[in-house]
Automatic annotation (TrEMBL):
PANTHER family documented for this protein: CYTOKININ DEHYDROGENASE, GULONOLACTONE OXIDASE
Name the UniProt record assigns to this protein: cytokinin dehydrogenase
Domain of life: Eukaryota
Keyword Iron-sulfur recorded: no
Record-linked SUPFAM superfamilies: FAD-binding/transporter-associated domain-like (SSF56176), FAD-linked oxidases, C-terminal domain (SSF55103)
GO biological process terms, semicolon-separated: cytokinin metabolic process
Cofactor(s) this protein cannot do without: FAD
Source organism per UniProt: Brassica carinata
UniProt keywords, alphabetically: FAD, Flavoprotein, Oxidoreductase
UniProt family annotation: Belongs to the oxygen-dependent FAD-linked oxidoreductase family.
Catalytic activity: N(6)-dimethylallyladenine + A + H2O = 3-methyl-2-butenal + adenine + AH2
GO molecular-function terms, A-Z: cytokinin dehydrogenase activity; FAD binding
Domain FAD-binding PCMH-type: 55-232
């Protein structure tokens, strides 16, 4: 089917020809693709919103490609126009409009999601080729059920697309060992901002490969990724242990992530919670099973406004004897200085562990907080400054909680590839901090504004105090802030833009570059 943009005039009654001042002249003839172009209606409404729920824009049209050539067609049409932009939209789980294109074309990457799924084997090990629009959840299920294999590095929540997380980094409790998801792909197919379809890897078109990884969608649209696989374990022992003191929590967490593979857990994360019985922010958020109870009498008298929880996981096979698993777990846990009696654990299938956030998603959908705004803040903070950050942010600004998880756990810089576009704080150990705010349905608009203001206050405090930090999933509105964010990597980022998207067609919602006239 050849689709043209004219249907826009047919099904969109109102301000058709003037979305953000766009004219269709020249675009309508040139946007000649096999897939669909949808103008107006539910598709453009969805493409104009995201999980953050704080931005709403009107794209010109949504492109539903059948393959990379359609995506290249959309980019080439934009190149021929005066000011059209193109945003790939993965699952729209950005917070600040990063996957939006006001008055531009939004490419719905989920359409071509099932087009690729091929497992292969190379001297470097097993891999799977998947579409850029594939959901990690589906990649997991197919790899495990059809091949007994699984990717090595994950995000906590898997309703995200491969291209969407690779454009940022993709971080979870396995990243201390394998690096982020960007360190676990070996080849990509990319549609550049020049409209070229290019295969790239460390050896072939390597500048494009490393530009796109962590590139915030600025250099190309990932249509295929080759993801490294390993044998999937059958089961996971999932453990939570509680600390009253931040320095004891960080000492143990840093020790665990610095051990050799076989002498540590397979997953290490951590979070901060309120020292109180608040069901959303406090003690009840720690136990892993309804039969477990948090016993506050175990807490030392000296405990402060917040407490800390290390979250650990150990993989095993059903053929392993439980006593062997117990022994491995106890050997590791025996070295840790958590509060005795505040330890929780469950055993569950590996796939269920990786899909653990689905339960929270279901609950949030039932209570309506999946749909309300999510003014989230994600940062990387250096080990040098994480103590200061704890004293000011966790113990003061966020001491009553943020209505959702407050993650904090260490990562190792040596597991990240410096050639990608991601920027990190200095030093081998740095922390990811995530304030995952959920807003009750009854909350007033002003409470969302307060949360956004508090996020800004935290970022400004970091800048003022010279905290060594970088925003993760960054969002800035000014050129100066972006330059500060990239630091000495800014000129490389600009050079890459000049090379691969000189007209600044791609991912305009990141607000880094303006479309060249
Ligand atoms: P989108 O929001 O659709 O797009 C993000 C950016 O990437 C946009 O600029 C877009 O234009 C660009 N893009 C999208 N697809 C492509 C492509 N194929 N090629 C090139 N550019 C593309 N992150 C973590 O690292 N770890 C976590 O544990 C984690 N948990 C999360 C849990 C939830 C509930 C949510 C909402 C987010 C979480 N994130 C996490 C953040 C998530 O990784 C990012 O928001 C990611 O961008 C979302 O993926 P998406 O597919 O929805 O991308």
């Amino acid at each position: 089917m050849i689709a043209y943009i004219e249907p826009y005039f047919l099904d969109n009654d109102s301000d058709a020809a003037s979305v953000a001042g766009q004219s269709f002249d020249g675009v309508s003839e040139s946007l000649d693709i096999e897939g669909e172009i949808v103008c107006g209606g539910a598709a453009t409404d969805i493409a104009g919103k995201d999980f953050g729920g704080m931005n709403c824009v009107k794209p010109l049209a949504v492109v539903r490609p059948v393959g990379p050539e359609d995506i290249a067609g959309a980019v080439r049409a934009a190149l021929r126009s005066d000011k059209l932009t193109v945003a790939a939209r993965g699952n729209g789980h950005s917070i600040n409009g990063q996957a939006m294109a006001e008055g531009g074309l939004v490419v719905d990457m989920r359409c071509a999601a099932e087009n690729r799924f091929e497992v292969g084997f190379s001297p470097g090990g097993a891999f799977v080729d998947v579409s850029g629009g594939a959901l990690w959840e589906n990649v997991l299920k197919r790899c495990v059920s059809e091949y007994g294999l699984a990717p090595r590095s994950w995000t906590d929540y898997l309703g995200l697309t491969v291209g969407g997380t690779l454009s940022n980094a993709g971080v979870s409790g396995q990243a201390f060992r394998y690096g982020p998801q960007t360190s676990n792909v070996t080849e990509l197919d990319v549609v550049t901002g020049n409209g070229d379809v290019v295969t790239c890897s460390e050896m072939e078109n390597s500048e494009l490969f490393f530009s796109v990884l962590g590139g915030l969608g600025q250099f190309g649209i990932i249509t295929r990724a080759r993801v490294l696989l390993q044998p999937a374990p059958d089961m996971v022992r999932w453990i939570r242990i509680v600390y009253a003191e931040f320095d004891e929590f960080t000492r143990d967490a840093e020790w665990l992530v610095s051990q050799k593979d076989e002498s540590t857990f397979d997953y290490v994360e951590g979070f901060v919670f309120v020292n109180g019985d608040d069901p959303v922010n406090g003690w009840p958020t720690v136990p892993l099973h309804p039969d477990h109870a948090f016993d506050p009498t175990r807490l030392p008298q000296s405990s402060g406004s917040v407490l800390y929880c290390l979250e650990l996981a150990l993989h095993y096979r059903v053929s392993d004897s439980i006593s062997t698993v117990d022994k491995r777990g106890e050997k590791l846990i025996g070295r840790l200085r958590f509060i005795k009696g505040l330890r929780f654990e469950v055993d569950l299938p590996y796939v269920d562990f990786l899909l653990r956030v689905n339960q929270s998603e279901e609950m949030a959908k039932v209570n309506g907080t999946w749909e309300t705004p999510h003014p989230w803040l994600n940062l990387f903070v250096s080990k040098r400054d994480i103590g200061k950050f704890d004293r000011t942010v966790f113990k003061e600004l966020a001491k009553n909680g943020v209505g959702g998880p407050m993650l904090v756990y260490p990562l190792l810089r040596s597991r990240w590839d410096d050639r990608t576009s991601v920027v990190l704080p200095e030093g081998e150990i740095f922390y990811i901090v995530a304030l995952l705010r959920f807003v009750p349905t009854c909350a007033k608009a002003s409470s969302v504004e307060k949360m956004v203001a508090q996020n800004q206050e935290i970022v400004q405090w970091c800048v003022r105090k010279g905290i060594d930090f970088k925003l993760y999933l960054p969002h800035y509105n000014s050129r100066e802030d972006w330059i500060r964010h990239f630091g000495n990597r800014w000129s490389r980022f600009v050079d890459r833009k000049t090379m691969f998207d000189p007209m600044a067609i791609l991912s305009p919602g990141q607000k880094i570059f303006n479309r060249a006239p």
